[in-house]
Amino acid sequence: MGKLEKISPEQSQAPYRAGNIQHGISKYEGKRQVSEKEKNKENNQKKFDLQERLIDYAVRIIHVSEQLPDTKAGKHVSSQILKSGTSPAPNYGEGQSAETI
Known about the structure:
Strand content: 5-15%
Oligomer: single chain
Strand order of the largest sheet: 1-2-3
């Protein structure tokens, strides 16, 4: 285990830190409790907007690929990231419209 070191309150809400693990105040402290019904409602909402989130993800991937350098390696990585980052949205849509036999 790592050595505990004292840090200032400005550095963290927790009074002590051991490596990457902070001890003291919970990150959930002060937040209201969410009921199971609210959690289920949030999860269902996330399920239904997955297509929209995948499209947003593809748009962000396109922006990232445009920021890559115009070198041979940059073009290769850009091509790969475009292929892998934009395919989930149409694949998900195709899977949703598939019929079972």
